[in-house]
Design goal:
It comes from Haemophilus parahaemolyticus. By secondary structure, the protein is α/β, with parallel strands linked by helices. Helix content is about 35%, strand content about 20%. It folds into two domains: about 70 residues; about 250 residues, TIM Barrel (Alpha-Beta Barrel), CATH 3.20.20.
């Protein structure tokens, strides 16, 4: 019998030991016995089984889809589910694009004076009722959404008063979080947080400068994280995003960054996940005024990738890796902008799809009228179009990408643009395996 390694298995050979990682079920296996029939995978993509000496092992490898017969070689390991029609994803900007920080790499207009007010509560409540979905996911975004805490509290209360259950999240710079406001957010059913910390004090304050002399951005973020650590809320989940480039290590010393993390977050707290993101080489440019700097945000040179790998290796051994969770989750890297039931709503009640291209005309797909009815326009079809092709069916990244890693890139190119994870799958596999090894 001939058995093959299917395309969803990543193989790594090190010190004459074979490590197989299965992207279908997140299992991994080490093969070091040179007499084992599977050891022939060292320099081949298939094996021949002649005897039953290792029958139990081989049957397990077949059962867990590490090995497949020739007839099943081209099977898909993950069905493309795209998006659920049972869930409404609302992303609200209660304070518009206004913010109390002035981050170097930010692309938003922080002079935005628009705000969601009491009348928005009724309109958006009617929208939720009119959409009539089984589930509601609500996220507050900005700018800095906590500049309009009054709306956040009122709208969440309105939903709960109408017996509308929802999962609540907020993307915040964290500088406005204290114990009182954490309590208010929790009472508003906001239990998922994304907060950004970009390094030790000097580095963070350079990249994420405060608009006020009375606010130290670094102190604000670290104090917020410590407030959450010390809270009794066990069902809160915090993703700590850290934007890194080669300066994060070369100029400001990687050990300083690690010291900040370890002095702020306990390693054994399951509520916290760390998400490092490689960004370009910033000095003083601000994206709102400099198109060249805007391109720099998405640029990841070899240096940036090396920094990211060093950081991910550290996280895999010491903390929960948000990147690993996304990589191994069905649709983890499938962008919300491609979901027809995901609505980004600004105070002018226009509906957008992407939070990165807020002011791009192609991003406006409709508006919410005074009765809470979603009035769509022709742009919507561009965002929800399925750009996947026949090659997606046998792609190792298909499970997490679902053919929709970046709808904006697909629209601009008028074709499917594959996510970077496809090209970096071997490095990413090592990170995933190291993370899961902690639990074995």
């Amino acid at each position: 019998m001939v058995l093959y390694l299917p395309y969803w298995i990543t193989k790594k050979v090190e010190n004459e030991e074979i490590r197989l990682f299965n992207w279908a079920n997140n299992y991994s296996v080490n093969i070091y016995d040179k007499s084992h029939p599977a050891y022939k995978l060292l320099d081949s993509d298939h094996i021949n089984i002649y005897n039953n000496e290792y029958e139990e092992d081989v049957n397990w490898l077949i059962e867990e889809k590490f090995l497949v017969s020739e007839n099943n070689y081209s099977d898909r390991f993950s069905e493309s589910k795209r998006f659920s029609n049972d869930t409404l994803d609302l992303i609200l900007l209660p304070a518009g694009e206004a913010c109390n920080l002035n981050c170097i790499y930010c692309y938003e207009n922080h002079n935005d004076k628009s705000r969601m007010k009491s009348e928005h509560v009724d309109i958006l409540l009617n929208l939720v009722k009119n959409q009539n979905k089984k589930n509601l996911k609500l996220e507050y975004f900005g700018g800095e959404p906590m500049l309009n805490m009054n709306f956040i509290k009122k709208f969440s209360k309105s939903l709960l008063d109408n017996n509308i259950q929802f999962s609540g999240a907020i993307t915040t710079n964290g500088t406005l979080i204290n114990k009182e406001r954490l309590d208010e957010l929790y009472q508003a059913n906001i239990k998922s947080f994304q907060i950004t910390l970009d390094g030790p004090r000097e580095r963070h304050n350079l990249l994420r400068a405060s608009n006020s002399k009375s606010l130290d951005s670094f102190d604000g973020v670290t104090n917020a994280l410590k407030t959450i650590v010390e809270s009794s809320y066990e069902d809160i989940v915090v993703t700590l995003r850290i934007n890194v480039n080669h300066h994060s290590i070369e100029k400001y010393n990687f050990e300083k960054l690690i010291a900040v993390i370890e002095s702020t977050l306990p390693k054994n707290d399951p509520r916290f996940f760390i998400l490092p993101k490689a960004i370009g080489d910033y000095s003083s440019a601000n994206l709102r005024n400099n198109e060249e700097a805007k391109m720099e945000y998405c640029k990841t040179s070899t240096k940036e990738k090396e920094v990211l790998q060093v950081f991910e290796d550290y996280i895999a051994h010491n903390y929960n890796s948000a990147n690993v969770m996304l990589l191994t989750k069905q649709g983890g890297y499938s962008c919300y902008a491609g979901n027809p039931n995901s609505l980004v709503i600004t105070p002018d009640l226009k509906v957008r799809k992407c939070t990165v291209a807020l002011n791009d005309p192609i991003n406006i797909v409709g508006f919410i009228d005074k009765n809470g009815i979603y009035q769509k326009n022709e742009n919507l079809n561009l965002w929800i179009k399925d750009y996947s092709d026949k090659y997606c069916n046998t792609c190792i990244a298909q499970k997490t990408c679902q053919g929709s890693s970046c709808p904006l890139a697909n629209i601009k190119a008028n074709k499917k643009i594959c996510p970077p994870i496809k090209q970096e799958i071997n490095v990413l596999t090592q990170q995933v395996v190291k993370f899961y090894d902690k639990f074995n």
